[in-house]
Each structure stands twice: as structure tokens, then as C-alpha cells.
Amino acid sequence: MNQVAAPDTPRVGSAEAALLEVIAQTLRDLHGDASVAPPVSLDSFLDRDLGFDSLSRVELLLRIERALVVDLPEDTLARAERVRDLLDAVEAARPGSVRGAARATAPVQRGILHDVEMPQNAGTLLEVLDWHVATHPDRVQIIYLADETQHEISFRALAQGAEAIAAGLQHAGLRPGRCVAIMLPTSPEYFQTYFGILRAGGIPVPIYPPARASQLQDHVLRHTGILDNAQAALLVTVAEAMVVAHLLQARVPGLRRVVTPQELATLGGALHAAAVRSEDIAFIQYTSGSTGNPKGVTLTHANLLANIRAIVQAIEVTPRDVFVSWLPLYHDMGLIGAFLGTLYVGCPLVVMSPLAFLSKPQRWLWAIHRFRGTLSAAPNFAYELCLRRIDDALLEGLDLRCWRLALNGAEAVSASTVERFQKRFAKYGFAPEALAPVYGLAEASVGLLFPPLGRVARIDRVQREVLSREARAVPAAAEDSTALAFVACGRPLAGHAIRIVDASDNEVGERTEGALQFMGPSATCGYYRNAVETARLFHGGWLDTGDRAYMADGDVYLTGREKDIVIRGGRNLYPEQIEEAVGALAGVRKGSVAVFGSADPRTGTERLVVLAEARSSDGAKRARVQEAISRAVFDVIGEPADDIVLAPPHTVLKTSSGKVRRSACRALYEQGRIGAATPTARAQVLRLALGAIAPRLRHGLAALRHAFYGLYAAGLFSVLALLASLRSEFAPTEAAVWAVGARAARRFFRGAGIAVSVRGLDRLPRNEACILVSNHASYLDSVLLLAALPQPYAFVAKRELRAQFLAGRYLTRLGVQYVERFDLKRSVEDANRMADAVAQGRSLIVFPEGTFVAREGLLPFLLGAFLAAARARVAVVPVTIRGSRSVLPDGTWWMRRGAIHIEIGAPIYPTAPADDVFASAVKLRGEARAQIARQLSSQPE
User: Fold this and answer.
1) 147, 223, 370, 520: most buried, per Cβ within 10 A?
2) For residues 290 and 190, is the Cβ–Cβ distance under 8 A?
3) DSSP SS3 for 221
């Protein structure tokens, strides 16, 4: 049953309740599936929110009149924009109604925020924000801490800032479905930019700003691959990062513009809010892959909201909670877990820069104290940093009794860190059960495993040798000093499932280590424009996490990344255990140790390499440190390392979230670049600038070739179109006009070198009228069908084309049926006229999407063509066009070379009873759209 939600609770038996039920039932009939029908409220727009086109709106009004026994005014069809307008019309039509007068003097009062009040029916993040703006616009959602000041952002301010940036993005040329990179530090502008990109119809791609000048070259090279893969059109950054931004722009041909949020907000112009659906991409999270093969996890609005709702349920978040965060917003834990999660619930987010935390970790704890934070999250290293870098004197008076849940995730959780943090901060009111190890990954949006609330973290000690050789997690004796310790990360979120499998994808038993896989509504559909890695990700319906784990008593214990485990002599060695032991040594920089395997062709196994950043450059001290590392490694695994490399600070490479990049460190080691002098920032800039010359030249030549081809194709089309128009003036019949146009169209495609293939011509009905319905992706689509079809059909086109001088005259002679798009009454009349034409034996071609957009995928189908088919009892023939969007993209008249495929499907005949035209039309529409969607997905453009 579709859920009906309204700001005002409808009275039982009232006109309001009856109206909402009629609308909900009509939507269920339109969609054929209650689960996908949009939610209904009095403030829902009939077209934008509920998807009623002019003809389905006629059906809705008829049902309202029958169900509520009223005679609605004639102008209701044109004037009613929202459900509330329909209610006013119903009340006005009822005898003795005073509804209108009462509403004029008693406006609706919005309720205050209750614990259970959340945007449960929102299908997109934009709808979540809109819901909060409508419900409590001035409620503070974000408190941004900078130095000793704080900046408060209400829902209204967030929405207004986002709209200004969205208008600026559209003014800068952003088209729907294109990616926009965000390279901003934590700031109020970040939140507004993210939602501004969504509001403009773009896809946000968070990337991190350069941390140090010494890493400039590595930063630019890594992000060049990301921006190129994303085909980012714009980059939003701060003025201070413009040098890096322009270096990226020089290496990424499609990156047309680099702007600041302030520049976007002042560009002005009216915002044309894009239609955003739940299945649209809400952002792309690039994981820490190699520079040559970036993996961008595509996450839709539906993915994110499913994950957020499951997390909210698991940890019982309410609007009374307060989340305190320093997590970077370019990482999923900070963006989704902190920002979007709190936005959904409506609880305040107190946020500070990651640099503020890293320089003085006590700022995090004092922010929790000051704002009475109840929730916070961080990787394991943050808890370790609090243990090592904060003196007791800096914690005098600290009160952490408010902190009900400290989530520890995003990297391997250390049992030692958990136990020591619980013990040290207990005297400041921190409850041991508040520290909750969790597990997630970008491919699952952010969260996957959570422990039950109120439980002290479980730590499992297992026999090292049995696990490393036999993959069995056998409990170790208390006195076993070589035991491995793993922390339980809990159970899957509601609606999600996990399994642990062996190398053959067979599930393993309790306490047996294997590969961790998952499925659920927050799972990504794959990596953006990376089919190879996407294929590796999926195992049937299961997604591979890339992690190894085992189950024990219902809990999942993570043992390490599959790609990072070192296999030496038949044993699995776990880098985290060795890194933790080495990092605890005096003279070694904590968190700056990388352990990895390097292939040894002589032995056929891997060499164990320990790369550690040393604090001292003194030879004697370094020798002692190296000896201490050797002993520590032996104590942990029972055998020595093959190579121990001491390196200067900042040698160990890390991801944006602080994880050690072991594969990158291995490459550094194998290339012999450990300890090599780092070029100055100026030298790196010069090298990058020189390296960008060749790609820019190649891009320039390609653009020149494209321009010449586009000019040639446009000229050829214009000449042939003019000749066809002139010849058609002397054609005696519509069939002759069709033949002239078809010959010109075929000559154009041949002359332009555009290959057009057609399949399924034998499926066209012979000697009977029908309606061809096709997807619409380009202005070329009509010309394509003109060239491809063997017999004349009448196109159905928008009425505005009739007024064009040459095109309008030719189309009229071709027999085009014009329909009205804006006047609802005339639109209905035109649809009836279309049905009459079909009934009289005229076959039609209709583009039921009504328009086309730049992004891939089908738009909703309007009902007119299918009502005409249902009334005339004729077949609907689905036609799928693939490739035209690439040959002539939206927003340009410059064509590109390419191949176009046209697939004519099997006819679909009305099967519903002849007296139920509406039901028959809905069924025809659903079957035709499903057939076209299948064809599009079988061979994407």
C-alpha cells in the first residue's frame, strides 16, 4: 500500500483524506507497482513531484469527481498545480463550503520537530533538504568551527547558498549529468557547493586539496586520472589552490573551467532546477586506486538514503543528537556519515577542519564537551592520536559523559587502541560501551557492519600459526603471547547481507577466514566508466569488499585487505599487526610504517619488506632503531623481515583518509626511489607544466579535426535539407514528400560517414495502422526514422515547429500531427485528434518522452500516444535508437562521427478491456518503456 504523507493530518472521512486516497490509487494504477509510486502530500506538485502529465491529469480529475461526487470547475485542469489546489477546488465545488474562507484567515501551521519526524518519503537528497526547509527553515543544521569562532548555517541558508551556486554553475555552462569536481577544504562553501551541484543537475566528485608542496606532483598525477575518468567539466576550488587547479586543467582536456564558490555565487542568472531522480548519481567516490586505473564508486540518491536510514535505525539517531566531526568532507565517512546523515535526521553537525584536529587533537574532545556531542566517528589513528598527543593537563575539566557513541572505522581497528582509549578516558566520563568498532566501504555507500548498542567492544584472540597457514580462527590461550587480536565490527545493517567465501566462492563455516562479500540497497552499481573493475567487483549478486574476515558468534571480524596480505612460505602475514608493533617503537614515526610483500623470483615467494620513517638521521641511532624493528617483527610473526628500510619523514604514501598506500609504497621500493631527494615545489610545477604540453597539443589537434568535421556535416545537412524542402513543394502527395525526405536523409548519413543500422523492419505491422513510440536522445532522431523506415508515417511534433518558415512548411506537407505542450485543454484535444487519426488508418511516430536531455537513461513516458492506441485498439511498436546522443549531444549543433543502431521491437496490442481505456494505456506504456529500456541497457551508447 502506498504511504500517504501530508503536513496536515487528514481527518477520517474528510474530503482531504478521500482526495489523497484517490490520488494515491491513481498513482498506483499509473505505475503498476505501489513501491515505486511517489509519496503524496498536500504540497506535492502534480507534475514535478507526482508525474501527472496533461492526459493522466484528466483521468485524475474524472476519478476525483466520481469519488467525491463533485463537479469541478472547468479551469481546474489548467489552474491546479499542487494537490492543495485540487483540495481547494473540491471544497469550493461542494455546497455551502467555507474552506476557502477559512484557509484565507487561518494559514497552515508547521509543526515543531519531533523525534520521529524525518523525511521518510524523500527519494533524493534534494527532497530531504527541501523537506527541512519547508518544516523548520531557520533550524541550525551546521555549526562550523574555525579558530575561536563559529559560523551557524540553517537549512534555509544552506538551500539559498546552494541555489546561488547552482545558478552560477548553469551560467558557467554545466549540463545535467556532467561531473563537477570539488577541491575545497572544510568550510561553509563546501556544503553549499555540494548541494548546488545536485540542484543544477550535476554530479559532485569530491577530491582532496594538496597537503604539502613536496607531494604536488603525486597529487596532480593522481587527480589527473580521476578527473579524466570522471570527464569533469568544472572544478570548484579556493583561490589558494588555483596553481594546482590550473595544472590539472592543463592535463585534463575536458576540464573547461576552474572557479571558486564565491565566483559561482555572483555569476547570477535564473536557476532552472534540474529534474533529479532517486536513481541518479548523487556523487562519485574515488577509491585509492592507481593513477592509471582510478575506481570511481557511483552512488545514487537511493543508495545513500538507504544506507543513511539503515544506520539511523542501527544506532537510534534522533534530532536531539549532536554529531561532532573533524572528518574530511572529500571522504565518504565525513560526507555521508557526518554531513548527509545529520542532514537527513535534522540533528546539528558541529564540524571543524581536519587540520584543526591533527594539530591539536584535544580540540575534538573539547568540542564534544562544549556542544554536548552525543555522536562522533573517526578512524583508529585518531583515537591513537588522542592517546599519544594529549597531555593530562590539557584535559582538566573535560566531561565526556554526553558522548554516547564513538564510532571507530574507515581503517583496521586496533584492539590495543580500543582498550587503552576506554581505560584512559573513563575518568572523564567516557563509557566503555560507547566505543563502537564499525566497518564500511565506499562500495556500500559508507556503512555495512555495526555492533549492537550498549555492548563493550568484543576482542577475539586467535592462534597466529593456525590462522596464517590454515585460515582457521582458533581461540588462543590466555598465556599465548603470539596470538593475533581482532575486534568485532558487528552485524550487517538492516536490509543488507554478508557472506564469507573461499577462492571458489563457496561459503565457509564458523571461524573460517575467507573473502567478505555483501549485498543490499546501498550497494553501488559499479565503478564509473570502468567496466573491467566493475566486472571484478561482482560475484553474481554479491559484491567483493576486497577484505578478508571470519564469523564468530554472529559477529564479523576483519583480518586484513586481500591485496595487502603477504604470502611467504605458505603463510598469510597480516601487515597491520606488524605495522602496529613497529610503529610503537621509539624512534619510529607512529602511523608512518608500511609493510608489504615484494615478489622474489629466486624463491617463488614474497619477500617481507618493512618501510619505516625514522625520526633521527644519526647513524648509531638509526642502527639501534633497525635492530629494534627486526626484534619486533620476529616477536610478532616468529621470523625476521627480509628487508628493513628506514626512510625520511613523509616517505610513506597515504590516502586522503590517512590509510597507508601499501601498493604505492611497494612501487616506490621496487623502483629504488626510497629516500630519493624530493624536487622543490617550483621544479614539480615546471615538470608538470611541461608534461601538459603534449596532451594539450593532442587535444587541440583533435578539437580542430572535430571542428572541421562538424562544419562539414552541418553544411552537408543544410544543403540537403534545403534541396529536400524545395523538391517537396512539387511533390503531389504526403507519400511523395516522405520519399524525397527519406532519400535526402540517407544521402546525408552516407556523406557524413555515420553508419546507421536497422534491425526488425519485418516486425512492422502490414496493412494496419499502428503507433511507433521511440526513445528521444537527439535532434537527429526524426531524421534517422525518416531514413530508416520503408513506408510513410506521420510524425507527432510540438506545435511551435509549425511557425518555423522552412521547417514548418516542409513538416506540414509531410503530414506532421502537431500537439500543444503548454495549454492543457488544447493538449487534451490534440490527443483526442491523434486517436481519431489512428482510428482512420493513419500510422503515427511519437517520442513519448516529449523532450531529451544530455544524460543517459529514459525520461518518463507521457500517456498521450498510449491513450490513442488504447482508444483505437491498435498496436504500439517500440523503437529503440542507440548512438544518436553521442553523434549529436544536447546543447550543440556540432556533430561527431559515430555509429547509430535502430531496433524495431515486436508490436504490443491492447489487452485490457476496451471500456477501460486508462488501464489499457498504462499497461501499453509500461510494456513499451520496459522493452526500450532493455534494448538500451543491452548495448549502451
Assistant:
1) 223
2) no
3) helix
